[in-house]
Task: structure prediction
Amino acid sequence: MDSNVYVPLLSAFGGAIIGSAATVWTVHLQLRSQDRRERVRQATSLALEEFKLRLDLAKTGKGPSGVLPISVLCHFYAEVLAALDRGDLSVKTMRDIQERNGELGKLALEISPLPSTLRRPKEAP
Result:
């Protein structure tokens, strides 16, 4: 056969492979982004419900006198949902998440614009 036939054939084949790979990669990125958005939406919804519950308990005096900022609760639920997605939800993972979330909660309360009477009381050393 003539080499003039192979060049366009290989070029077309290479272009088809590159085009299909680009499509698959684009769909993969879109799905990953959509999954992340959905996880953030779920974490925010869970955090908002817990925030409302904690606020009601604080108002009635049946719970702690202060309420953590909702950003801390969102962080906690985002971490838990990410661990569920990875298939890595264990006692150790939950303890690690709780430890990181505790540090974030302390920082959030330190920089909180709320009056000191509405903040959670500091623990005795």
